Amino acid sequence: MLRYVFRRLLTAIPTLLVIVTMAFFLIRVAPGGPFNQERGLSPEIKANLEAQFGLNDPLWLQYVHYLGNLLRGNFGPSYNMPDFTVGELFARGLPVSIQIGASALILALLLGCLLGTIAALNQNKLADYSVIALATAGSTIPTFVIAPVIQLLFGLTWKLLPIGGWGDGALLNKIGPVLTLALPQIAIVARLMRGSMIESLRSHHIRTARALGLSDWSVVVKHALRGAILPIVSFTGPAAAALLTGSIIVETIFSIPGIGRYFVEAALNRDYTLVMGTVVVIALFTIVFNLIVDVMYAFVDPRVRYD
Amino acid sequence: MDASETILSVKDLRVRFRTLDGVVEAVKGINIHVNAGETVAVVGESGSGKSQTMMAAMSLLASNGEATGVVDYRGRNLLTLSKSELNQVRGRRISMIFQEPMTSLDPLYSIGNQLIEPIRRHRGLGAAQAREEALKLLRLVYIPDPERRMKSYPHELSGGQRQRVMIAMALANDPDILIADEPTTALDLTIQAQILMLLAELQRKLGMAIVFITHDLGIVRRLADRVYVMRYGEVVEEGEAEAIFVNPQHAYTKMLLAAEPTGIKAPPPPNAPVLLEGRNVEVTFKIGGGFLAGEPLILRAVDHISIRLKRNQTIGIVGESGSGKSTLGRALLRLLPSDGLIRFGDRDISAADRQAMRPLRRELQLVFQDPFGSLSPRMTVGQVITEGLLVHEPILSGRQRDLRAVEALREVGLDPNARNRYPHEFSGGQRQRIAIARAMILKPKVVVLDEPTSALDRSVQKQIVELLRKLQADHELSYLFISHDLAVVRAMADYIIVMKQGKIVEEGPTEAIFSNPQATYTQTLMAAAIDVTRFRLSA
Amino acid sequence: MTDIVATAPAVVGRSLWGDAWARLKANRAAMFSLYYLAFIAILSVFGPSLVPHRYTTIYADYVRMPPSLSAYPKPDKIETALNEAIKRMRVDIKQWRQEDNRIFVTVTSHKPIDDRNVRYLDRSDAFDNTKIESKSADGLEAVMSASIRQQYFLFGTDNTGRDLLSRTLMAGRISLAIGLLAGVVAGVIGVLYGAAAGLAGGKVDEVMMRIVDVLYSLPFIFFVIMLVVFFGRNFVLMFLAVGAVLWLDMARIVRGQALSIRRQEYVQAAEAMGVGQRGILIRHVIPNLLGPVVIYMTLLVPQVIILESFLSFLGLGVQEPMTSWGVLISTGSKNIGTANWLLLFPAFFLVSTLFALNFVGDGLRDALDPRDR
């Protein structure tokens, strides 16, 4: 197992390198530069700034410098927010994004599995149809519709929640964003769980368990659920990576200081270092969570062996 | 125990399934009873409702199924019991084993865990005691090294071992009745015999009644005390086993009894020309390997095999699963890359590529085992049959092709008017006829038949065997008949090759092999085939 | 049976496609959704030219008017509008009255009144056809008449006074067109790539799928934003590019299907008959691939529509004055406090369309792949 993890991490290095390289050159090829937008910069100051950040060096040299800095864990300074380094921006924004994302993920997994199981056990009955309806709605309505509707209902009409803002992490401020982020995921998990649970309940070993007179609890929870959970485990990897690195929509609409907002702003402003930093963070999260999920998979399913 | 005491009686049982095409009645009001300690066989072909009868009795029907009637076990109607009452009976008084040993155990839990669970549940034993019991059970069903096996997972066991574990689980609580639903069908012949022997021994030791659900009359013959014959959801005949076999009353029973393929194939004249020849044919597969994955595993599926197929000859290739018999058939047709020499007529085709093989393909045909998978589901039967003509006789007009399709369908005994229908509208036997017509329309010289009857009911098997024989006689065909079914091979082939793990164990004329097998493996195989039909469960 | 029978027209069977169509027709939710989609499509294509307002016309007097079934200007608003227009003439109202659909206003001034002053009334969105009815001899007093312009804003108007109905329909046209366009682009690329990998197999397949894996682990939004940066605001080009990004799933699905079809016995049977690669592709692989491709296309189109709305929401997609549902929802979400109809109408159109697409997709899946009975 350890060897497998080690090998996976080893193969992650070239993947990461490819991503970093592609991202680096793609954004550099794009027209414009970090100091073009700022009006009133005299050409001398602009030239000065570019020289200071090494933007006049040949591209390959900049690339080598960037890789070198990255290896030392240094993401470089942000061009558009000169008071901060990219590392500092992440240090402030990432905890916020992770809090919201992790809460949404946990909520989605618990509620989604529960709803999916209830639906599967009551296939083609009212409970099942209700869950299907909920799941369809959740996976069909985009977040940029859910979020303002939540604001409209809970914030403006019923005045239960603040309309937006972080409020230094107050619980009430988190409810809206977490709900918005979680709803589509709940829908996906519930659907996935319903499908795999129905299949699991139909499998031959469940028939065996029933024929042996085992209790419903054992049949459903011990035998059916454990097999049905496998697709959910696979789903969790990419989902965790996506949720924990922040959502542009949710952070924009609810005015939350996470890292999800950085990316678009940075790309439009050609804040090269911030764009690159975000790409690296997202890629890292993706790789790490996929690895964690594969390891977890082996714990749930003894047929999966890594060596 | 009073042998005449009736412990289970099924009265006017009906089973219905709600489907998209309306309600289907799978079991139509049948009556069956089981006495203590006896062996009852419920025999029928696919779709007879034999399995659903027992599933209904055990309340194991699929969610769209519904049973009415009475299933009386010692005075209690199982169909009306509450779930918890039912679970006092299931696995405790009545137990069941299934056809699919590969999937009937939970893949995620160890054997020990799964064995201990029903023991603890029904007998309320502590963990340590239950573990002792489980070990005892594993020894009872002759699982070697039971201590170690307790920790194994189902995928680490062979098919036969899994079925033994399944039996151990079913017998864990000393039940009155064991329902065995086709328990040996998915297993190799030698394993089948072992499992049947085990069941017979356990019945002697423990004295439970066995309800044996099977399509295989061969097994039923010596194994059961009483037999119920089912067709289309009804019991058409019942009685003492001997009586049914000696003096069947119902036409269907007679047909089933006569369904065992009979007859022999005369060998071709000694001077018949050799059509297809393989010398030292070898096929290897590479498993795994690649970047960072270590050395690949080399699997030699066909290991230096030589074979000579003469005109009008049928060579039967016999072997259990994994013996390499199908691989050999495909390699000889150059559908798989292989080493060694392969000749067709006087041509060396060992190195022929796709292009070079194409004109020869019409003379070298292949019929598959699974008539459901081998016909393209989106083509009409006419299109399926005439596809080869597009390649080999491209000058034919659409109308000429149509006429050839009519001719080919008639030759295999199908209504030519059905040629615009689609494969899914036909039964298994009819589909296999279509597959044969597809091969025959090209007027081939050699046909490789890869288990062409194994997916079919016995009665249909016999028809297909007869069809193949007639076609061979009409067209002087040469067959390579690949099968695990000794009865069918005996009726079809004049020469037999016995394969095991990619090697030829023994070969010779059919009668010589059957009457006087030399190799130990062949003897085991023959003995198993006879044992399977000779076994008697009840003491 | 005689020979004549054999050549008689044979019984026609029902193909799997026929079965699927019959099953789809029996699925009420899917059929209703199909009709609804057709309705929305027709509305979006022809609607914008049928409604009285162009989607770009600005009615400065009708900023953020709530949706209403009755005509604007409302009776109480007529005087306000009149006062405003008269004020711009720099004259004073002496009196005014309304007769049917026309108003008559008497104005006075200390300078002679210029006839061209009528344009101030015409310029107001509330009136047109202004005439000077009479004028006093000294020119200091005049009676003007103007007809009241009755305008309907069924969905209300937006922040700059544009009719939301025409904008919503126009947005529908853009969103649906983009969904279809980018969906088809993604579908074609995915099918070609996936089929090529699946059919080639072996090393080629391995390399091609490795490339897909790498593209998968690149943050998707990064790609899209790069495309925006490259293609600027040309939305047609951009959505061709977006389509070019969304093909990954399709490629995986098609490749998997192609691989499994190749392993099917009926393909082996065709190979054993000497059928060439082309024949196998045309007669066996493509017809059997079509089902999964159709099913996945119905998933792809809503995905693209959502993506378009998402980008437009961020201000990266369609640009003003052109509009799409995403643009409208974005405006709406910024005005939920004061003008919630700006959110509700476009959101309803978008969500109901997505629902319908979803039901059609589910229906098609059930119809084409009925294993899960």
From TrEMBL, chain A:
CDD domains assigned: TM_PBP2
Annotated TM spans: 9-30, 98-119, 131-154, 174-193, 228-254, 274-300
UniProt keyword terms in alphabetical order: Cell membrane, Membrane, Transmembrane, Transmembrane helix, Transport
InterPro entries, per database record: BPD_transp_1_N (IPR045621), MetI-like (IPR000515), MetI-like_sf (IPR035906)
Main location: membrane
PANTHER family named among the record's database cross-references: INNER MEMBRANE ABC TRANSPORTER, OLIGOPEPTIDE TRANSPORT SYSTEM PERMEASE PROTEIN OPPB
UniProt-recorded name of the protein: Murein tripeptide ABC transporter/oligopeptide ABC transporter inner membrane subunit OppB
Automatic annotation (TrEMBL), chain B:
Annotated protein name in UniProt: Oligopeptide ABC transporter ATP binding subunit
Top-level taxon of origin: Bacteria
Membrane-traversing stretches: none
Membrane topology per record: Peripheral membrane protein
Source organism: Mesorhizobium ventifaucium
InterPro entries: AAA+_ATPase, ABC_Ni/Peptide_Import, ABC_transporter-like_ATP-bd, ABC_transporter-like_CS, Oligopep_ABC_C, P-loop_NTPase
Annotated family: Belongs to the ABC transporter superfamily.
Localization per Swiss-Prot or TrEMBL: Cell inner membrane
Keywords from the named record: ATP-binding, Cell membrane, Membrane, Nucleotide-binding, Transport
Domain ABC transporter: from-to ranges: 8-257, 276-526
Automatic annotation (TrEMBL), chain C:
Primary location: membrane
Gene3D superfamilies: MetI-like (1.10.3720.10)
Topology within the bilayer: Multi-pass membrane protein
PROSITE patterns for this protein: ABC_TM1
Protein name: Oligopeptide transport system permease protein OppC
Localization per Swiss-Prot or TrEMBL: Cell inner membrane; Cell membrane
KW rRNA-binding (keyword) present: no
Keywords attached to this entry: Cell inner membrane, Cell membrane, Membrane, Peptide transport, Protein transport, Transmembrane, Transmembrane helix, Transport
Keyword Plastid belongs to the record: no
InterPro entries: BP-dependent_transpt_permease, MetI-like, MetI-like_sf, OppC_N
Parts of the chain that traverse the membrane: 33-51, 174-200, 220-248, 293-318, 338-361
Membership in a protein family: Belongs to the binding-protein-dependent transport system permease family. OppBC subfamily.
Domain ABC transmembrane type-1 intervals: 172-361
